[in-house]
Specification:
It contains 5 helices and 4 strands, in the order ααααββαββ. With 147 residues, it is of the alpha+beta class. A hairpin with a 2-residue loop joins strand 3 and strand 4.
C-alpha cells in the first residue's frame, strides 16, 4: 500500500515557495512600520531634532510633553505613513488625525485638534529629505519616499 497523496503535487509546492508576492505599506502592520521607519530616520541622521522638541506639548488639551525622547521621529514616521495612505493630505487633516478628546471638566468631552507647529516642522523636514512633496493643497509621497 502506498501512502495517501496530498492534493498538491511537489512541483506545486516548489512553485509556491519560489514566487514572491509584492508587499506594500498596507500589508505591513502600522505599529511595526512606524517603529522601524522611526529607527531608520534616527539612525540615518536625515532629520535633526529641533531645539524645542523636549519642551512642547503636542496639543493644547495635553497636560505634559511626550515621555518618549524619540517621539519626534515616531511622529515623522507616522506622518509619512498617513500621507502615503492618503495623498494630498494637508496640515489641517493631520491635525484632526492626531487630535483627541479634549476634557471640559464636568461638561462633555469634544474632539480637539492637535497642535500644528510640530506637524508643519515635520512636513518641512520630510520635504528636505525628499520623502514628501507639495502638490496642490496637500502633500504626497515622492517616488524616493516610496522606496
Amino acid at each position: 500500500p502506498q501512502p495517501p497523496q496530498s492534493p498538491s503535487s511537489p512541483t506545486d509546492e516548489a512553485n509556491r515557495t519560489m514566487t514572491r508576492q509584492a508587499v506594500t505599506l498596507k500589508d505591513v502592520p502600522a505599529d511595526a512600520f512606524i517603529r522601524e521607519y522611526a529607527a531608520h530616520l534616527k539612525k540615518s541622521g536625515a532629520i535633526q531634532l529641533p531645539a524645542w522638541h523636549n519642551l512642547i506639548k503636542t496639543a493644547t488639551f495635553k497636560e505634559l510633553s511626550p515621555y518618549d525622547e524619540d517621539w519626534y521621529y515616531v511622529r515623522a514616521a507616522s506622518v509619512a505613513r498617513k500621507i502615503y495612505l492618503r495623498p494630498h493630505t494637508g496640515l489641517g487633516a493631520l491635525q484632526k488625525v492626531y487630535g483627541a478628546a479634549g476634557r471640559n471638566g464636568v461638561r462633555p468631552n469634544h474632539h480637539m485638534r492637535s497642535a500644528g507647529g510640530h506637524i508643519r516642522h515635520i512636513l518641512h523636514d520630510l520635504e528636505k529629505i525628499g520623502v514628501v512633496a507639495k502638490e496642490g493643497k496637500g502633500r504626497k509621497i515622492t517616488s524616493e519616499g516610496q522606496r
